[in-house]
Every structure is written in structure tokens, then in C-alpha cells.
């Protein structure tokens, strides 16, 4: 006797609730979306944010046409974007602001290093849709209006890569190839099955999600890709017989041109299957943040958050200009971008919080000064 396994659940008809959710999203032009980014504290990356604002606008137009006008998406209009740039340059922060804050559609940000080939320890790529399903309150139709962002995408480069990660002289393990193949279907298929319970049990049938409106964004630093592209352009051999790359390679944004980014051969040598890179119809390059932009982020985002916290404890936080310059210079030296700003300030402010939070005796000012090359705090 043969056993017939039930197939995946059919695609559900969009409910009135989903239509209402889509209709409630404010329709903004790309320029207005860009202005909202500034209001939410995003700084720098003028070219990248323009491209991303258009991406968000197109995403909104697709779901409105489908759910409000009843028009299926036109073939070839689905967006798969690759964001390339150094750490701390604002790639994932831009995705969060655009889709979680401004459009407020279901959005999933996942680290590529969490995934492995089916059958091995680690998450299967289909669970990306499971996460989107959870973010949409278990409504598959509303989830289909969402966005999936995979960070650290460059870590999926396989051990077959001839390129070397700048400064590390190493490559990714073999599991990356299986994950890349698993992503192929998600980036091009009209629909895909996913486990509603993340595969924890075998009692639930797989569900099906419509992918015609899904936007997929991959983010990565891609250290050494610029050198790989340069070498291919000059006809250099990569691998044995090649001179070692310098220990401190230049950032990708300053080395890789748009023409080089479109060379799938460079990505193949880096460790990606050409079919996967070919699924991305837009490559967006992020530049390293300069001192002026980092200083603006420090003042408008990082320090204001700390100032509000200290005000709630009856303290005024004052940071001298020399300290701000010191924090920015350290972030530039360490090449940690905006993330490095908070990293430098956090230990010092935590010590001050340990000493003075919760006392609420009298209003006082905690001043950060730079003495003998080190940041010091004093209560006035």
C-alpha cells in the first residue's frame, strides 16, 4: 500500500484585512521617501539612498497594483538587490528604516551565517519565509507584501573561491554552495513552500507563499572583490602563482566600478555561482562614511540617545568637541563605520551610569573631556 503525502497548502486569497493594510500605507514619491530617511536620522550615502528610495517606491507600487487594483505584477519587475559596502556604512540600517519604519511592511533581517545546506546543522533557507510569515502575524498574504534582507551575504562564498578575504587570507566553508543553490528558487520562482513552524515538527503541512511581490536584499562587505575584479581586467591569474594581496586592502566602494560589479566572473572567482548573482537586477555600492558624516551621526543619533537617557536620571550629558573628534577619528582608524561610534563611548558612559544612575539627588552635569589623549568623565 502506498502512502500519499499531502501537498502544500494552496495560495490563500488575500483577505480584506490585507487589502486594508496595503491601502493604509502612505504613498510617497522616491524624493519624499529620501526626505523621510533624513528625518529618521539616516546620514550620508546619497547615491545609495536614492537607489533604495526608488526600490521602496517600486515595492509599494507592486503590492498596490496586485492587492488594490487586481493587476498581476509585470514579468521581470520583481526586485532582487545586492548592497555592497564596508561594515558600518548603513546597509541594513537603510533597509530597516525604509521597510520597517516608512512602509511598515513585514520585514526580515537575517544573518547568512545562520544558514546551511538542507540536511546539515543550521537553518534551511526556506525558514526565511517562515520568519516573514511570523513577522506578518501568520498571514501568508500579508507576508507576501514583505521584504527579506540577508546580511553578511558575502560569507556564503565557497571554498572554491580563488580570492582571499582582505586581511584574513581565508575563505568560507563548503556549506555556502548549498545555501546559494537553495536561494536560487526563492529569488526567481513565483511561489515557494515553507514550514510554518520552522520545521520543528512534521505534523504541519508546508504552506505556500506568493513571491511575485517579494523584495529580496542581500548585504555584504565583499572584502577583496575589488582586487579580484582588477585582476580579471588585467588578465591576472588568481590563486597559486599570484602575488599575495596586501594585508590591508582598500574598501570595495573605492575600488570596484559599476562595470566591474557587473562582471559575474569576478563574483564567481570570489565564490558565488553565476546563476545566483544573475538573479540580482540591481547592485548598489555603499561608500565608507567620511569624518563629517560620522560626526553628524554621532551628534544627531548616538549622543542624543544617550542625552535622553541621562536626562531621565536627572543628569545633563555634555560632550566637548575634542571628545567628538576623538571618537570619530577612532572609528575611522578601526574602519568600523557608524558602529564604532557607540563602541568607543559605551564603556565610559556605562561606568558613569553605574556610579550615578538611580540616585536622583540633585540635577548635575556629567561632562566628557579629553585629557592626555583619553576621554574622562567628571560630575559638575
From TrEMBL:
Q: Does the keyword Nucleotide-binding apply?
A: yes
Looking up Pfam families in the UniProt record yields: AAA_2, ClpB_D2-small
| Domain Clp ATPase C-terminal: residue ranges | 289-377
| Record keywords | ATP-binding, Chaperone, Nucleotide-binding
Gene Ontology MF terms in the entry: ATP binding; ATP hydrolysis activity
Record flagged with keyword Chaperone: yes
Instruction: Check the record and name the InterPro entries matching this protein.
Output: AAA+_ATPase (IPR003593), ATP-dep_Clp_protease_ClpX (IPR050052), ATPase_AAA_core (IPR003959), Clp_ATPase_C (IPR019489), P-loop_NTPase (IPR027417)
> Sorted alphabetically, which PANTHER family does this protein's record hold?
ATP-DEPENDENT CLP PROTEASE ATP-BINDING SUBUNIT CLPX-LIKE, MITOCHONDRIAL, ATP-DEPENDENT CLP PROTEASE ATP-BINDING SUBUNIT CLPX-LIKE, MITOCHONDRIAL-RELATED
What is the name listed in the Swiss-Prot or TrEMBL entry for this protein?
Answer: ATP-binding protein
Q: Identify the taxonomic lineage of the organism of origin.
A: Bacteria, Pseudomonadati, Myxococcota, Myxococcia, Myxococcales
